[in-house]
Amino acid sequence: MKNPFKKVPHTYVIIFALIVLAAICTWFVPAGEFDRQLARTQNGKIIEQTIGGSYHRVAQQPQTWQVMGAFFKGFQKVPAIIVFLLILGGAFWILNETKAIDMGVQSFLAKSNLLERFRFFKWIGINNLIIVLIMVMFSSFGAIFGMSEETIAFVIIFVPLAISMGYDSIVGVCMCFLAAGLGFAGCILNPFTLGIAQDIAGIKMFSGIEYRIAMWIVITTIGIAYVLWYANKIKKNPRSSIMYEQDNYWRQNQSNTQNIQAISANRGTWLSYLLCTLTMIGFTIYVGMDYVEFNGGLKTYILLLCLTILFTFLGYRAAKKSIQVFCLLILITTIVFLIVGVMVFSWEFMQIAALFFSMAIVCGIALGKDASEISKLFIAGAKDMLSAAMVVGLASGIIIILEDGKIIDTFLNGVASSINGSGKVGALTLMYGFQSLLNAIITSGTAKAAMLMPMFREIANMVGLPLQSAVTAFHIGDGFTNLITPTSGVLIGVLGLARIPYAKWFRWAWKFILFLVILGWALLLPTVLIPLPGF
Predict the structure, then answer these.
(1) Pick from 70, 67, 63: which is nearest to 394 by CA?
(2) Model pTM score
(3) CA distances from 77 to 151, 256, 361, 398, 494 (A)
(4) Residues 476, 429: contact at Cβ < 8 Å?
(5) How many CB atoms lie within 10 A of CB 382?
(6) What's the CA gap between 338 and 142, in Å, rounded?
(7) Cα distance between residue 17 and residue 23, in whole Å
(8) CA-based nearest residue to 481, from 184, 126, 48, 46
(9) Predicted confidence (pLDDT) per residue in 217-275, tens digit
(10) Maximum distance among all alpha carbons in the chain?
(11) 12 phi and psi angles, rounded to 5 deg
């Protein structure tokens, strides 16, 4: 007799069940609200802060038929992520039509495997080294500038790479998404969580960096060690992966591209090269010079100028080799500009989406497709990503129900009341625990900083807890559970591109995430038990 509990519900079923549970809570949990005020942070960002001690009861707002409207309102709440996913799906569908990524992965592995002839590389394993280097890079991105949404774009690169190396799609996701999440928790210089939290707490921005670097090293090292252990386990026995059957899609795609033939450049390829070169020159002149004039960023202008010159030279050589090499260079250039745009120009979803939309058009032209053919390919890619986009909208419905039911602030007030008088370690533990749980409701680090830090600041002062410790509890708690909560649009987008069902990701990740949460709590204790610089 089959065990009915072995059948994992569909992601939509899991999320809708959470929506219903949230609606039930609105009938029994008292409704209430904090007063809020607008405030400007030191870096000029306007945020809405809760006012400590202002909680008051309001009329109960039980949710009934609104459960059925949560899907609709969820789409209205996060349109940026949904549209971004659709554009990304269309862009990479066109790029995949060129087979540039497949050729790039094969070429990379062929060259990296040549290093095996050296005793040192053979001893440590070249594939292990690749995983370590990629994860350190993405963890650094997460710690320094809060890379999160941007990891979605890298999934389509690292999942095929992981499959080609003999691993599964989960390893590919870990190389970028999990690594960035580890760095996000370590949070060395992240202005979107650490910077705002310290600003609200009234302490020097980015102070206490010495201990944060130590935390980042510990968290990243343990994360990499776990992924290496899992990856080598899958390498020895591929069928032990819970994604073995679903990864047939990637393996089939890999087998179909074993003997990719280079396609010589056509008129469209050279037209794409010309368009890209002229666009980069224009961007450097107008955007770069404006940035220098108003922000004094001479180094930024020099960087853009160097990138333009480099692309002009490399683009010509790539186009002479083949369409695939040229499109691979377009992808690399897109990623470089993504990093520069986020770190220097503070780009958000719209600018990043525009960047990948441009990449789609350029690759389509380079492939020799006309406007109608490019449109059809783009629509096919967006259609392929529609399921993941719909999950994002549905998951946002959980937050909608809780907000409309006026019970989120009731939870906040209850936690604030329980923390007061619990002692330093107890208060720190409760702050950390609540922040970790709040990720299931609110995934935006900036929004949580504005909501929680005013209360954390007051509680820390009352119990004699260092404000830096309260900030640390906030940013570590903001990192780990975001890697597993179904309300995270980024997670759902990543899993959608990787073709990993949420239930299987949860099954694989929950024990490791639980371990990370416990590790995070252990890393908090030194901030109140021993003297630390900046604390």
Answers:
(1) 70
(2) 0.77
(3) 21, 40, 29, 11, 19
(4) no
(5) 19
(6) 14
(7) 10
(8) 184
(9) 999 999 999 999 999 999 999 999 999 999 998 888 766 655 667 788 889 999 999 99
(10) 74
(11) -60, -40
